[in-house]
């Protein structure tokens, strides 16, 4: 296995000089008149970038006020949140724990292949030839730890300050324990990934130690898994997991390869990554079926459990450096959510209070909207676009690509 790791100190640089990029190519959703005043628009970009980069609350508040009073519309600020970084070429291909493709162009966002428990030679080579960046997560105590994806999101957030990564095209792969980890990462934080590519791994940790219900979280996440037929225990568990996925109507594919064992399947890299490269993550699914709580997660796409009544049990997860303890729900929280016309309908179990986050891409903010929770109308009115919500929610989620303009918290009853 080849591990591409560089010194953490590379993250400390904090200068973002402008690359020679045409605003028209960076902001396809805007009209030329939106950025016609180049100096004013540059000031807006600087304020948005500093809001996300500074650790000082006072400075962040000042930047928020500056953005709110800039005179720019919500749509323009939202575009700057998504595309406002200005990147230049970096001196080395390795930035922090991200390895860039050989022909990295700072004007173009590149997809990212995350190697859980490392990347093999074939997948590293194929990813590079296809223009992928590759990433090996740091500070992961156990690859099948449900919180692994949180570490990945945090590290991508830091890396995006230096290099132009496409957060809508992040793919997880791994071999053996890394293959198991891909399934766990997908079930725990489905909204972070565009696709999963587990190899010689299975959803066994979910099916046995956790619960098969968590596989339902994968409704909007494609999975393409490879196992060898001679890898008997893992193949058996993978087939069992695929049957559960099929029962739930998930978009998962399992290939059990004859006369192959517990291996990396590097000869399938071209096929595997070719399939994945066409996929982007779902930003705002109109229908959710989410199971979580404890260390299996508190957020799923556009709903977040702020308080729950979940009772957890402790599970020891074995790792090469020792056991880690994780709290897994005995009976997980459950949220079913659906957008019906201009209304959001939610049904919850084991949730005492939740947050609903909405984007103009999901509902007509100019029309009457409603939120119905457990059969009752919890709110009715016109969602008001808020620049403050836009910035605060992106910072909280560490995500400048999936943006929200309106949020509200609701009690759900106990």
The CATH architecture assignment of the largest domain turns out to be: 3-Layer(aba) Sandwich
- Count of all domains: 3
Find the CATH topology of the largest domain. Answer: Rossmann fold
**What would you call the structural class?**
alpha/beta
Q: How do the strands line up in the largest sheet?
A: 1-2-4-3-5-6-7-8
Q: Identify low-pLDDT runs.
A: 1-20
Bin the helical content: 25-40%
Short structural summary:
Helix content is 29%, strand content 26%.
List the topology elements.
Elements: H1 23-26, H2 38-53, H3 57-68, H4 74-83, E1 94-95, E2 98-99, E3 110-115, H5 121-129, E4 133-135, H6 148-159, E5 165-175, H7 177-188, E6 195-199, H8 204-210, E7 223-228, H9 232-248, E8 252-257, H10 269-276, E9 287-292, E10 299-300, E11 303-308, E12 312-317, E13 324-329, E14 333-340, E15 343-349, E16 351-358, E17 369-373, E18 376-381, H11 387-397, E19 406-411
Summary tags:
single chain, 414 residues, alpha/beta, Rossmann fold, 3 domains, eight-stranded mixed sheet, five-stranded mixed sheet, 11 helices, 19 strands, disordered N terminus
Could you characterize the architecture of this molecule?
The chain is of the alpha/beta class. The protein folds into three domains: 23-83; 94-276, Alpha/Beta hydrolase fold, catalytic domain (Rossmann fold, 3-Layer(aba) Sandwich), CATH 3.40.50; 287-411, no CATH class. Helices cover 29% and strands 26% of the residues. An eight-stranded mixed β-sheet has the order 1-2-4-3-5-6-7-8, with helices on both faces. The chain has a five-stranded mixed β-sheet with strand order 9-14-15-17-18, with no helix packed on it. A four-stranded antiparallel β-sheet has the order 10-11-16-19, with no helix packed on it. Helix 2 runs antiparallel to helix 3 (57-68). It is globular.
């Amino acid at each position: 296995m080849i591990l591409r790791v560089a010194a953490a100190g590379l993250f400390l640089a904090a200068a973002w000089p402008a690359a020679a990029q045409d605003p028209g190519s960076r902001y396809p959703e805007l009209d030329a008149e939106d950025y016609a005043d180049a100096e004013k628009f540059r000031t807006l970009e600087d304020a948005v970038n500093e809001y996300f980069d500074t650790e000082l609350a006072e400075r962040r508040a000042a930047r928020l006020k500056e953005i709110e009073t800039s005179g720019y519309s919500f749509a323009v600020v939202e575009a700057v949140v998504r595309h406002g970084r200005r990147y230049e070429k970096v001196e080395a291909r390795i930035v922090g724990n991200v390895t860039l493709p050989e022909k990295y162009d700072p004007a173009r966002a590149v997809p990212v292949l995350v190697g859980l428990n490392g990347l093999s030679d074939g997948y590293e080579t194929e990813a590079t030839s296809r223009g992928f960046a590759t990433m090996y997560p740091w500070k992961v105590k156990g690859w099948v730890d449900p919180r692994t994806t949180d570490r990945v999101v945090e590290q991508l957030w830091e890396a995006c300050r230096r290099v132009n990564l496409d957060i809508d095209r992040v793919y997880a792969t791994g071999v053996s324990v890394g293959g198991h980890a891909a399934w766990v990462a997908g079930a725990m934080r489905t909204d972070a990934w565009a696709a999963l590519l587990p190899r010689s791994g299975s959803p066994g940790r979910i099916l046995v130690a956790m619960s098969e219900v968590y596989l339902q979280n994968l409704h909007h996440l494609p999975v393409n898994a490879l196992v060898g037929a001679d890898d008997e225990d893992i193949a058996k568990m993978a087939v069992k997991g695929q049957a559960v996925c099929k029962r739930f109507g998930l978009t998962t594919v399992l290939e059990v390869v004859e006369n192959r064992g517990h291996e990396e399947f590097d000869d399938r890299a071209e096929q595997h990554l070719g399939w994945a490269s066409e996929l982007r993550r779902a930003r705002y699914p109109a229908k959710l079926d989410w199971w979580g709580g404890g260390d299996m997660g508190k957020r799923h796409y556009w709903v977040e459990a702020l308080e729950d009544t979940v009772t957890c049990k402790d599970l020891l997860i074995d790792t090469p450096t020792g056991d880690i303890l994780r709290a897994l729900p005995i009976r997980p929280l459950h949220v079913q959510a659906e957008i019906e016309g201009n209304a959001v309908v939610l049904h919850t179990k084991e949730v005492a209070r939740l947050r609903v986050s909405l984007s103009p891409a999901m509902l007509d903010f100019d029309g009457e909207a409603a939120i119905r929770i457990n059969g009752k109308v919890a709110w009715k009115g016109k969602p008001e676009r808020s620049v403050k919500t836009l910035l605060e929610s992106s910072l909280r989620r560490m995500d400048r690509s999936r943006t929200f303009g309106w949020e509200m918290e609701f009690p759900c009853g106990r």
